[in-house]
Design goal:
With 157 residues, the chain is α+β, with helices and mostly antiparallel strands. It has two domains: 57 residues; 68 residues, no CATH class. The strands form three sheets. A six-stranded antiparallel β-sheet has the order 3-8-9-10-6-5, with no helix packed on it. Strands 1-2 form a two-stranded antiparallel ribbon. A hairpin with a 5-residue loop joins strand 8 and strand 9. Helix 1 crosses helix 5. The protein is elongated and about 50 Å long.
Length: 157
């Protein structure tokens, strides 16, 4: 009964094309081991599709709500910086070894950020948490947990 209600609710709400283009499913966000450990491999295809649809409409990604999905991009406003002012907390995909100018870091939520200034050499770490926050004149600063360094970054995707 819950599943039927959830599917009906999800279908009733609908999804905009823009959100559909930016959404990444649980299968894309999680490793195969994480997917199995969470028991998601036991869901039927319709159940998994329903869960992904629910996440697309209401879910969050590492502390970032879907309403913040444009964070880091210019919104083409005339006044102010033209940037969204949301702080983003996420995990770097793969092994983190630091950053250097020109390097592109991909986050677990699918965002890609290019380092435009700054460098950091770090111990190789999987699952490094980073915070990206608005800085002066519309720029963005990335900080890695446990390190006293930041990098100026710009969002690519």
């Amino acid at each position: 009964m819950r599943r039927v209600l959830l599917v009906t609710l999800v279908l009733a709400l609908g999804v905009t094309t823009a959100l559909a283009a930016e959404f990444s499913s649980l299968e894309e966000r999680m490793s195969a081991a994480e997917f199995r450990a969470a028991g998601l491999d036991k869901l039927s295809e319709p159940e998994l599709a329903s869960l992904n649809e629910w996440l697309r409409v209401r879910g969050t990604s590492q502390g970032q709500t879907l309403g913040d999905s444009r964070a880091g991009f210019r919104d083409n406003t005339f006044f102010g910086t033209g940037e969204s002012s949301s702080t983003i907390e996420a995990v770097v995909r793969g092994e983190f070894r630091g950053w250097a100018r020109g390097q592109v870091l991909t986050l677990e939520n699918g965002q890609q950020w290019e380092v435009t200034d700054g460098s950091l050499v770090a111990q190789p770490t999987a699952g490094m948490r980073v915070t990206i926050e608005p800085a002066f004149m519309g720029s963005w600063l990335m900080k890695a947990d446990g390190y006293n360094a930041s990098a100026r970054v710009k969002r690519l995707r």
